[in-house]
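retry 2 of 3: previous attempt timed out while embedding glutamic acid. Reduced batch size to 1 and resubmitted. Inputs unchanged:
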Amino acid sequence: MRHAARVCGRFAPSPTGYVHLGNAWAFLLVWLSARAQNGRMILRVEDIDPQRSRTEFIDALLEDMRWLGLDWDEGPDVAGPAQPYLQSLRKGHYEEALTRLDRIGVTYPCFCTRGELRNLASAPHAEDAVVPYPGTCRRLDEAQRAVLFGAGRRAAVRLRCSAEEVSFTDALKGEGRMRLADCGGDFALRRSDGVISYQLAVTVDDAAMGITEVVRGRDILHSTPGQIVLQRLLGYATPRYAHIPLLLDNNGERLAKRHKGLALRSLRQQGADARRVVGLLSRMAGLNPREQPVKPGDLLPRFTLARLPEHDQRVTEDDVRRLVA
Ligand code: GLU
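retry 2 succeeded.
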């Protein structure tokens, strides 16, 4: 008899800045969900875009995550069967998947200009990530493509998406359906400068690393249908998804790298203690009403994703003051 695979979750940070409270919130919930099910954790560094990633942030993020009290069973600093754990070292895997997709005939070259393609490999939170590709190059015939290639034009590779709806279950929101056309349409698999897209890299890696559970911010929900379509085309299993609420600042903006004062390093320099940070995050997650200082492991007995609040949570100036008081 086959046993159900052991749960395996993943941290998937992009080394584009220092870990801030919003990342810490997501990492804590990812970790709690996997560990509460006695699952494994993998840390994968999403440094696929050389223009945005910086190596000095990789060391910093490992250090900041450990400071918070999180751990992992495999990662850049812990060897494991799915290594390497840096996307920049995994290009062979992505190219192989791309070749398979080419062979099935679901890709096409896209000659649209760099400006139009600029954000394709960027972190998937970009405001314009869901602007649909108008399908301009999908309609080119072989002769037109040959002319463009002949003129030395470089092409991105896009997936030819169908009009169907993709249905999937979210551990927080339940059953849902989304149209790929509403999530950006024919998305890029590789940019014209050769950089593999987030969508392809993440799908290949989640499968290669045996990830069974993807817990991530609800701002990435629009990327999920495309990843599921790729999984089906490539014969991969679909993990369980949970799109969690976000942390917002006082003005209702999603916490991001530009909130420099909310970087864990900066809070630490101002005297914040990791157990208080986890106390605040777990209070916002509905797990610690009195905001007791705690270690992540203290929250495990009470944790289930189903108990998380439905709505985004605001971090107020008072909250931050309490952390560093
Ligand atoms: N590297 C992505 C980010 O920084 C993670 C996306 C994901 O969890 O799939 O947001």
